[in-house]
Amino acid sequence: QVQLVESGGGLVQPGGSLRLACAASGTIASIYAMGWYRQAPGKQRELVAGISSSGSTNYPDSVKGRFTISRDNAKNTVYLQMNSLKAEDTAVYYCNAKVLGAGDFWGKGTLVTVSS
Questions:
Q1: What is the per-residue pLDDT across 33-78, written as a single tens digit (0 to 9) for each?
Q2: Considering only CA atoms, which of 43, 27, 24 is closest in space to residue 35?
Q3: Do 30 and 55 form a contact (C-beta atoms < 8 A)?
Protein backbone atom coordinates (compact mmCIF):
# COMPACT_ATOMS: atom_id res chain seq x y z
CA GLN A 1 0.00 0.00 0.00
CA VAL A 2 1.03 3.54 -0.75
CA GLN A 3 -0.35 6.66 0.88
CA LEU A 4 -0.13 10.02 -0.86
CA VAL A 5 -0.80 13.40 0.73
CA GLU A 6 -0.90 16.57 -1.38
CA SER A 7 -0.34 20.10 -0.15
CA GLY A 8 0.25 23.55 -1.54
CA GLY A 9 -2.98 24.38 -3.30
CA GLY A 10 -4.75 27.69 -2.92
CA LEU A 11 -5.88 30.87 -4.62
CA VAL A 12 -3.49 32.62 -6.98
CA GLN A 13 -3.86 35.44 -9.47
CA PRO A 14 -3.40 34.86 -13.20
CA GLY A 15 0.28 34.90 -14.04
CA GLY A 16 1.23 33.77 -10.57
CA SER A 17 2.97 30.65 -9.31
CA LEU A 18 2.28 27.81 -6.92
CA ARG A 19 4.22 24.75 -5.85
CA LEU A 20 2.38 21.58 -4.97
CA ALA A 21 3.93 18.79 -2.93
CA CYS A 22 3.02 15.12 -2.66
CA ALA A 23 4.43 13.15 0.24
CA ALA A 24 4.48 9.39 -0.24
CA SER A 25 4.60 6.73 2.45
CA GLY A 26 4.18 2.97 2.62
CA THR A 27 5.74 0.57 0.13
CA ILE A 28 7.61 3.31 -1.68
CA ALA A 29 10.20 0.99 -3.18
CA SER A 30 7.51 -0.48 -5.40
CA ILE A 31 6.64 2.84 -7.03
CA TYR A 32 7.87 2.99 -10.63
CA ALA A 33 6.29 6.26 -11.71
CA MET A 34 4.50 9.24 -10.21
CA GLY A 35 2.46 12.02 -11.66
CA TRP A 36 0.12 14.91 -11.17
CA TYR A 37 -3.36 14.92 -12.63
CA ARG A 38 -6.08 17.53 -12.48
CA GLN A 39 -9.81 17.56 -12.79
CA ALA A 40 -11.83 20.68 -13.46
CA PRO A 41 -15.60 20.81 -12.87
CA GLY A 42 -17.43 18.93 -15.59
CA LYS A 43 -14.23 17.64 -17.16
CA GLN A 44 -12.32 14.39 -17.14
CA ARG A 45 -9.22 13.93 -15.05
CA GLU A 46 -6.11 14.63 -17.12
CA LEU A 47 -2.39 14.13 -16.71
CA VAL A 48 -0.40 17.34 -16.27
CA ALA A 49 3.02 15.95 -15.41
CA GLY A 50 4.69 12.58 -14.99
CA ILE A 51 8.06 11.40 -13.74
CA SER A 52 9.49 7.90 -13.98
CA SER A 53 11.82 6.11 -11.62
CA SER A 54 14.67 6.99 -13.99
CA GLY A 55 13.77 10.66 -13.76
CA SER A 56 12.35 11.14 -17.23
CA THR A 57 9.44 13.55 -17.35
CA ASN A 58 6.48 14.16 -19.63
CA TYR A 59 3.95 16.96 -19.97
CA PRO A 60 0.98 17.69 -22.19
CA ASP A 61 1.26 20.67 -24.51
CA SER A 62 -1.19 22.64 -22.37
CA VAL A 63 1.34 22.99 -19.52
CA LYS A 64 4.69 22.40 -21.24
CA GLY A 65 7.09 25.21 -20.41
CA ARG A 66 4.97 26.38 -17.47
CA PHE A 67 4.84 23.34 -15.16
CA THR A 68 7.79 21.36 -13.83
CA ILE A 69 7.66 18.09 -11.95
CA SER A 70 10.52 17.10 -9.68
CA ARG A 71 11.21 14.76 -6.82
CA ASP A 72 13.22 14.60 -3.63
CA ASN A 73 13.95 10.95 -2.98
CA ALA A 74 15.30 11.67 0.50
CA LYS A 75 11.95 13.16 1.48
CA ASN A 76 9.83 10.75 -0.60
CA THR A 77 8.17 13.80 -2.07
CA VAL A 78 7.22 14.86 -5.58
CA TYR A 79 6.68 18.49 -6.44
CA LEU A 80 4.81 20.35 -9.15
CA GLN A 81 6.04 23.87 -9.80
CA MET A 82 3.38 25.80 -11.67
CA ASN A 83 4.26 29.14 -13.24
CA SER A 84 2.35 31.58 -15.44
CA LEU A 85 -0.91 30.19 -14.16
CA LYS A 86 -4.06 30.75 -16.15
CA ALA A 87 -7.73 30.64 -15.22
CA GLU A 88 -8.04 27.38 -17.12
CA ASP A 89 -5.55 25.78 -14.75
CA THR A 90 -8.19 25.95 -12.03
CA ALA A 91 -8.88 22.39 -10.89
CA VAL A 92 -8.40 19.86 -8.15
CA TYR A 93 -4.89 18.48 -8.51
CA TYR A 94 -4.25 14.85 -7.62
CA CYS A 95 -1.02 13.03 -6.96
CA ASN A 96 -0.72 9.57 -8.52
CA ALA A 97 1.67 6.71 -7.92
CA LYS A 98 1.99 3.62 -10.09
CA VAL A 99 2.99 0.62 -8.02
CA LEU A 100 4.37 -2.66 -9.30
CA GLY A 101 1.78 -5.38 -8.96
CA ALA A 102 -0.74 -3.08 -7.30
CA GLY A 103 -1.82 -0.51 -9.85
CA ASP A 104 -2.60 3.15 -9.26
CA PHE A 105 -2.79 4.98 -5.96
CA TRP A 106 -4.22 8.45 -5.53
CA GLY A 107 -4.10 11.26 -3.05
CA LYS A 108 -7.24 13.10 -1.97
CA GLY A 109 -6.42 16.14 -4.06
CA THR A 110 -5.69 19.80 -3.49
CA LEU A 111 -7.66 22.67 -5.00
CA VAL A 112 -5.93 25.25 -7.17
CA THR A 113 -7.94 28.33 -8.05
CA VAL A 114 -6.56 30.88 -10.50
CA SER A 115 -8.59 34.06 -10.32
CA SER A 116 -8.22 37.78 -9.94
A1: 999 999 999 999 999 999 999 999 999 999 999 999 999 989 999 9
A2: 24
A3: no
